[in-house]
Write a structure and sequence with these properties.
By secondary structure, the protein is an alpha/beta fold. The protein has a single domain, classed as Uracil-DNA Glycosylase, subunit E. 47% of the residues lie in helices and 16% in strands. A 5-stranded mixed beta sheet has the order 2-1-3-5-4, sandwiched between helices. The longest helix has 19 residues. Bound molecules: uracil.
Length: 158
Amino acid sequence: MGSGPSRPTLLVVGEAPGKTEDEGGEPFIGRSGQLLFKLIEEEVGITRADCFVTNIAKCRPPNNRPPTAKECEACRPWLLEQLDSLSPDAVLSVGNTATRQLFGVSEGISTIHGQRFELNGVSGIATYHPAAGLRSPNSVIPMIREDLRILKSQLSLA
Ligand code: URA
C-alpha cells in the first residue's frame, strides 16, 4: 500500500510495484527509488523519511506491463483515502501512468512535467519517472531536478 510517516511533507506516487518492491513489500526500494530520493534530497532538501511513498496501482501487474486504466481506477479509492488521511503538503507524481490517472490529464509527461495540479485540495506536480532517468541520465535527470526545484519553490517546502 505504501510506506512513510503519518504526516508526510510529500506524497510520492509512482506507477506500480516492480519485482523488487513486490518482494520487499515497499514502493521504490530498487534502483529507481534510490535515484528518485537522491534527487529529492539534493533539490528539495527533504529525505525519504519525510515522504509517504506509494503507487497509483497497488499490485504488480504481470510481466512488468504498465497498469491499465481500469486497474488504476480500481485502486483510486485507496489513493484518495491515503491523500485524505495523510494530509501531505504536496503530491509528487512520477511518470506518465501515475500523472494521467492521478490528475486526469491526457498529455504525456514531456508536455506536462513541472506543471502544477490540484487533487482534492492538495497541490501536486508531475515529473519524469526515475526509470527514464536511469535509461537516459543526461537528458532526463536535469529535467527531474528542474521539476523538483519548481516543487520546492512553488510549494514552499523544506
Ligand atoms: N516504479 C514505480 O513506479 N513504483 C515502484 O514502486 C517501483 C518502481
